[in-house]
Amino acid sequence: MSSETPGRRHRGLRGLRKPAKRRPQEPPPAEVDEPAGPPEPPPETSSVISAALYRDGHRISTHDTLSGTFRQLRATSDSLAWIGLHRPSRDELLTLASEFDLHQLAVEDALEAHQRPKLERYGGTLFVVLRAARYLDDPEEVDFGELHLFVGPDFVITVRHGGAPDLSAVRRRMEDAPELLQHGPEAVLYAILDAVVDGYAPVVAGIQNDIDEIETEVFGGDPRVSRRIYELSRELVEFQRATRPLNGMLEGLTAGFEKYGIDEELRRYLRDVADHVLHITERVDGFRQALQEILTVNATLVNQQQNAEMRALAEAGFEQNEEIKKISSWAAILFAPTLVGTIYGMNFERMPELRWALGYPFAIILMAIVCTSLYVIFKRRGWL
After folding, report:
1. More confident residue, 379 or 15
2. SS3 label, residue 352
3. Is the confidence at residue 332, as pLDDT, over 70?
4. Which of 91, 114, 224, 294 is most buried (most C-beta within 10 Å)?
5. Nearest to 143 by CA among 128, 127, 161
6. For residue 226, what are the contacts with CB-CB under 8 A and spacing of at least 6?
7. Are the CB atoms for 96 and 155 separated by under 8 Å?
8. Which residues have CB under 8 Å from 70's CB, separation 6+?
């Protein structure tokens, strides 16, 4: 197994020490009648999902607590402890660290979660971080989980954060294949790696289906498709962060298997997992490229649609302008006789041409001349 020396400073065990046990208090004298105190809080729920011991590939015992697992492991030689935890507490991890001599930096990573996929060796213990994924059909999104593994000479500890993966299926598979399980902790590590990588296949299929739907929506003019492309792009980036480091991790693990003389059969299994990882990373890279092209096509179609809308608005504005010209022209034509009629309709006694015999015909002729002149002018300008 290859090792990666972490570049972080050792901060010691100050932040990882167990709280000091309190000395039990002596009961108060019988003659003192004190009120009853508050009831003791119930014990915290254990995060142990499954803890079992195996010898020669067969389960020999199952335990509900860590302490029982520890006692049985110490009393049984040539056995393997496989402990599965889900979001363990600090005290539980400290207990495991004390029993199996786990490095404090690895314990801190397992407590904090949100780690990148990586492979590190601390002495005789291998620490592996994996990002599992599953596709949720109803919301059409990818749910990511995190899995931490401590692999030692006689133990495998899995610390799961999130819903994926389902390690109970991995355990059943290994128990149904004792000839594989008898290879020890490395076989369990391979099985978990294989389960995580196999879990990526439904995610790839779901993303492929989403991309096909997005292509249909793009050419269908769905206005919500841009947001969906953005959300799927973010999921693909997260998926790449989960899968891309696996190539280097598996290469390092393969080199470590050669160094520590691991069985050739396990190496073949591991190479098969590496082939699956390579196929998935290539598919994910292709998805990102396809989404980029779809986004470009969508932007082009949106621009074309906007240009068509702008053209339609311009044409509508032009038509409105023509109508306004016509209305304005007729308003001007009708305004001229109205002006003349209004002036001569004021009925003042001293007005020019008021008592003129030809005043009325003159006013009518004047109105006709003005209106005709305006009509000819507007007609030549194309307003009418």
Report:
1. 379
2. coil
3. yes
4. 294
5. 161
6. 295, 298, 302
7. no
8. 99
The DSSP code for 14 is: G
Chain centroid to Cα 45, Å, comes to: 30
Its pTM surpasses 0.85: no
End-to-end CA distance of the chain: 91
More confidently predicted of 55 and 383: 55
CB-CB contact of 125 with 151 (8 Å): yes
- Asked if 157 and 83 count as a contact pair (C-beta separation under 8 A), the reply is yes
Is the bond leading into 337 cis (omega within 30 degrees of zero)? no
The answer to whether the beta carbons of residues 196 and 148 sit under 8 Å apart is no
- Contact indicator for 108, 121 with CB cutoff of 8 Å: no
Residue with tokens 């470590």: 256
pLDDT tens by residue, 217-232: 888 878 788 888 888 9
* Paired residues of 120 in beta bridges: 127
* Structure token pair of residue 204: 């790839």
Question: Residue 229 in contact with residue 214, Cβ under 8 Å?
Answer: yes
Of residues 85, 186, 40, 207, the one with CA closest to residue 134: 207
Q: Convert the pLDDT of each residue in 242-281 to its tens digit.
A: 999 998 888 888 777 767 667 777 888 888 999 999 999 9
